[in-house]
Specification:
single chain; about 375 residues; alpha/beta; Rossmann fold; 2 domains; seven-stranded parallel sheet; six-stranded parallel sheet; 15 helices
Length: about 375
């Protein structure tokens, strides 16, 4: 292949969040390594324009809903632009992109950014798992973002062991540090009191994130911290109503969708995440890389990110987060220790350079280069 290989990266959303941010880092890194990335996804969030501002080609595609027209347009794009490899991220993108790759005879790579189906009605859950198994038969390589996720996927029969490659999410530590705001500016930008203790979280407002646990814990903590929630999603109306019901008033800041939210994480005394389930959460790794103490629900993905013995792991309950946050907020030395441990671990285990080298290896394997 004389020209640099062209890779189509297909997203399910361009809202500010871990998956789209991961693809932005991936596409920029691939371009720097001589590949030609094209990104396709819905124009449903601020990151759509962020891709363009970074000089990346992005094509609008309604991969967030099942539409035959989207499949046909992706197939036409693949043929027209001479795409060599199709890499999909997320459920809807995985359906459209892998079918388009099959139609056009291109190899497909798919990244599972978490396996979420438990809250579906039983027939829908069974249908989703069956579809994922069928699509995996047309997928050259399945990328899992954590070892825990790979174990779950293998147990569910979603892919074969010889298809799977574990590539941990990585962050560009140097770029993140260079663009991070200092504490004062980050708080000013988010509209936070400069002197109040602040617990922060950046996440899609989805039921699996259990942000209601964080609201209830914040209401129970004394002295009362400010809670900053960065993001949006289907749970927002319910969360705002709950905040009012709990009498949190001005103690909760709903900051909305914040592109490259990690640049504001220095505003937080603690980053907190009570998720019920994750793949490998990018926001947690970004907070770690910046030396922010993290209090997280004790689930496999968080153990993989923070380390099995981390004092930041707590039960994913209101009581667990109330106790854990109180302990960390009240102890300056503990916050300093957790922040230093997090920074060291993120920079040694979750560097974007390692992730990019591994993804490039997968692409070469899929293309038999």
């Amino acid at each position: 292949m004389s020209a640099p290989p062209t890779v189509l990266e297909v997203l399910v959303s361009t809202q500010a969040g871990g998956g789209p941010q991961h693809v932005l880092t991936l596409a920029l890194g691939l371009r720097a390594r001589g590949w030609r990335p094209i990104v396709a996804g819905p124009r449903d969030g601020a990151l759509f324009e962020r891709f363009r501002a970074a000089g990346l080609e992005i094509v609008e595609a309604r991969t967030d809903r099942l539409e035959p027209l989207t499949l046909l347009r992706l197939a036409a794009l693949i043929r027209r632009r001479g795409v060599d490899l199709v890499h999909s991220h997320g459920k809807g993108a995985g359906v459209h992109a892998r079918l388009a790759a099959r139609l056009t005879g291109r190899p497909a790579v798919h990244t599972l950014h978490g396996i979420h189906y438990e809250r579906y009605p039983r027939p829908l859950a069974a249908a989703y798992l069956a579809l994922e198994r069928r699509l995996s038969a047309w997928t050259r390589i399945v990328v899992n973002v954590s070892r825990a996720q790979e174990r779950e996927g293998l147990a569910l029969g979603l892919f074969a062991a010889n298809q799977s490659r574990v590539i941990l999410n990585g962050v560009d530590v140097a770029r993140l540090g260079a663009h991070a705001l200092d504490r004062w500016d980050a708080r000013a930008e988010l509209g936070l009191d400069q002197s109040a203790p602040v617990v922060g979280c950046a996440a899609r407002f989805d039921a699996v994130k259990q942000l209601d646990v964080l609201l209830r814990a914040a209401a129970a903590i004394r002295p009362a911290p400010t809670l900053a929630l960065l993001g949006r999603g289907p749970e927002e109306v319910r969360l705002r109503a709950l905040a009012a019901e709990l009498g949190l008033g001005g103690r909760v800041r709903f900051a909305g969708e914040v592109p490259e939210a990690a640049h504001r994480f220095s505003a937080f005394d603690v980053f907190a995440t009570p998720s019920r389930k994750e793949g490998l959460p990018l926001a947690v790794i970004e907070a770690m890389a910046l030396g922010v103490p993290v209090v997280a629900s004790d689930i496999p993905a968080h153990r993989e990110a923070l380390g099995e013995a981390s004092l930041g792991l707590v039960p994913g309950t209101v009581e667990g987060f109330t106790s854990g946050l109180q302990r960390v907020l009240a102890d300056d030395a503990l916050r300093s220790r957790l922040g230093a441990e997090n920074r060291t671990r993120a920079r040694s285990e979750f560097d974007a350079r390692d992730m990019l080298a591994a993804v490039e290896g997968v692409y070469k394997e899929a293309l038999a280069l």
